[in-house]
Amino acid sequence: MKTNKNAYKVKLGIFVSIGILILFIIIFFIGSNQNLFSSKFKINTNFRNVSGLQVGGQVRFSGIAVGTIESVSIINDSTVNVVAMMDKDVKKFIKKDSKASITSEGVIGDKLLMISQGSSSAPEIKDGSFIQSMEPVEFDDILASIKITAENAEVITDELATMLIDINEGEGTLGKLLNDEGVARDMEKTMENLRQGSKGLEQNMEAAKHNFLLRGYFKKKEREKEKAKKEAEKKAEEAAEERAEKNK
């Protein structure tokens, strides 16, 4: 009987020891994840709207988790103060002109605080310092903008459809012009007159070339054209010879 009690006590002791060990392991992992065992420093920033950012949320710098949100508190009706606790190791990389913004992990993921890289010439931030913020773009505002754009596109489409129907039915000034046979005939006559005028001009130019008084002028123009042609051919030959020399 005594042996059974001793065995029970041993088993109970082992069970309790294992439970305590598991508890310490859980505390260690939670502490490591929340950066509880490393040196810390604080930063402050203000937003008009934190868009669902919560205490315990991640703080990231250059895409790397470097801290957590310690507190989110309302200062007044237009200002919300956010205090972030960050690893001391990244303090030297955060400058006074760095900015804080709120983003989400994925499209509908948890909200997190993103710290931007400042300029290399700016001084290092101090513990408890305040940095500027960039207000987040609300998803509802994006949806509202898309809705307005879609409504405008729908109105434009309806107006275009109405205009095309009116044109096909001969309504309006443009519809009457496009569907009026008289206008079409007038346009054909105008084009025919232009063709005849061009033909007459060509005939007049040909006659002028044979005119005694203008013959010298046209011959001069032909010589200039021929000279320009020969110069172009000469330049082309020289360029071909240069390429041939380079290729040797």
Automatic annotation (TrEMBL):
This is Phospholipid/cholesterol/gamma-HCH transport system substrate-binding protein. The chain crosses the membrane at residues 12-31. Residues 221-248 are annotated as: Disordered. Residues 42-118 form the Mce/MlaD domain. Keywords: Membrane, Transmembrane, Transmembrane helix.
